[in-house]
Protein: tRNA (guanine(26)-N(2))-dimethyltransferase
Amino acid sequence: MSDNEDELNGYTIIKEGETEILMHSNNTVFFNKAQVNNRDMSIALLRTYIQKRKEEYASMSRGKVNTLTRIIAATPSSSSMDETNIVDSEERVDGLEVTSNKFDHVRMNESVDDSKKILIKGRGEPKPPKVLEALAASGLRALRYALEVDGLGSVVALDSDEASIKACKRNIKFNGSAASSKIEVHHVDSRVYMLTNPKEFDVVDLDPYGSPSIFLDSAVQSVTDGGILMCTATDMAVLCGGNGEVCYSKYGSYPLKGKYCHEMALRILLACIESHAIRYKRYIVPILSVHMDFYIRVFVRIFTSPGAVKNTPLKLSYVYQCVGCDSFHLQSVGRTVYKNKSVRHAPGFGPVVPQDCKDCGKKFNMGGPIWSAPMHDQEWVLSALENVKAMRERYPAYEKILAVLTTISEELHDVPLFLSLHNLSATLKCTSPSAVIFRSAVINAGYRISGTHVNPLGLKTDAPMEVIWDIMRCWVKIHPVKNQPPDQSGSAILSKEPILQANLSRAFSSLSKSQVKKIARFLPNPERHWGPKVRAGRQISSKHVSLLGHDAVNALVGHEKANGEEHEPHNRDEQIEDAVEPKRQKTIDECNAQS
Structure:
């Protein structure tokens, strides 16, 4: 047997994109095949970032703009901005008034002074972006960045686990000199490394096993002005309301159980990142926020501006969710007051709801605060979509990320959270109208509506809940329901006559462009057991069948026995931990069934 064959004994070669890595069967280093979607999406955004960065520098060189980006103090500009809340002739309130599920951006200062802009240092071509992968594990992500993203500078891979560092170095060597020349590896606590290298990296990638909360404070300090923080969270049971008190301790927000729980998870994570950034006079501008498979991932740019930080309360809201029906309402944390020529910040007006729901008479649960400003940048989404289409052969998960980006590009970005048509019908115990009929009724009433990438049954709309329930009442008049007990929420809602007479005729724009073109937007998993995997270092046994499948578990256990790799737990804590099967992350349907 040759030396190379001896070195590869017990290892499997895994190819993803243009990268190959060696993985051992003993599970000492974490690897999850399902994360190919995550890595492909990150590469698409990295390529878009490099392109946008060059365009910004080119504009500076031509003298057409004098800023890296035009950052309005509160939120990215929106076509739906309007002035609201006239207090008196001398004082005008400019803020975010959120009533029902309608999110109204209010016009901020049109003239942004230089203190609220990020100036570019230097002209011409920018230096290649420097990337930090804070939790490298096998090094696959760092390798793909280095080998597949053109125009990228050095990639720094960190990990505090010695086995992971050895695996990372092995895989870098396995991919040749091209990888070795661009990637440097450090065995260090990533939090300490980021704290000791402030504003050093153009891109920081956090992809932990579980919650990223302990890394956020140091991460927001290590990103350069205008750089990108890419962050993943896989603790969906916590973020979706399964353990609200744990979520509050980690992220500073209380989640609510609802059909929109996965979007709320995204908004909780964004609010948490913002809360860490503002401590250092920095703030975030989200460019893409996605829920895929069993995790969420956000991409945000980070800027420094003491003035813009004051507007953070305008971008956060509390959520009031009725316990009896699907009505939810948002209340902004802060507002801006203009008096004469002076501007000051004040707490938001409230409460936006009475003690009892005016639709069904039940009580409200309150959650948040969450990020209620847009969580996507349409220009970036469209640019990433074009890049993915143009480089189809370089994305192993092309179909999946194309579907996700296409759906996101058609969302209403200025409407936080969404409704479920099936939930509305379940509350009234009526036959559900088709999505086309319901969307048509909303459009005919003069409001906007779209789908959401988070849930195939979700509908985002700026129509208030009064209009939504009036549409459902008109539908029930055509499709009667059986009598219900008077204490039911549906009975209370149907006991009122509709104020709006809904027009249920087919509207021209009731289908999105992708629906008209029959583009797949929600794809099934490519194989069974496509989901979270066992934490690295944990011995794989028959207890992990639900995560890996019978065939995979039998093969791994058999291989360990053949090589004499079975081991006893090192201590009592590990023995207890292995005695309990790891909790499987809930699917969308399971999470919704509990809401």
Summary: Residues 65-122, 565-591 have pLDDT under 50 and may be disordered.
